[in-house]
Amino acid sequence: MPARNPTGFDLKEFKAAASPSSVYARRDPWTRNETWRYTGPFSRFNRFKGLFPGFGIATVAFAAYCTYEHFFLKDDHHHGDAHH
């Protein structure tokens, strides 16, 4: 028979209580009050959705300008040519 712990602390009971699927976790009275933080407008996607406002429009506008510059504007400077 193993020696009894004089403090009364049972590691197996502690691990069972700490697991998310334990009976103790399901009886937690604060669980209902905390769920609003992770649902609806406070979900992870909705919290970071507005992090960079206008970034999508700016990316499209920059890509359109780069395309316009590449195809329609001419470079008259020819920096690599020798001027003799």
TrEMBL record:
It comes from the Eukaryota. InterPro entries: NDUFB3. One of its GO terms (biological process) is mitochondrial respiratory chain complex I assembly. GO terms for cellular component: mitochondrial inner membrane. It is found in: Mitochondrion inner membrane. Keywords: Electron transport, Membrane, Mitochondrion, Mitochondrion inner membrane, Respiratory chain, Transmembrane, Transmembrane helix, Transport. Pfam families: NDUF_B12 (PF08122). The chain crosses the membrane at residues 50-68. It is a single-pass membrane protein. Accessory subunit of the mitochondrial membrane respiratory chain NADH dehydrogenase (Complex I), that is believed not to be involved in catalysis. Complex I functions in the transfer of electrons from NADH to the respiratory chain. The immediate electron acceptor for the enzyme is believed to be ubiquinone. Belongs to the complex I NDUFB3 subunit family. This is NADH:ubiquinone oxidoreductase B12 subunit.
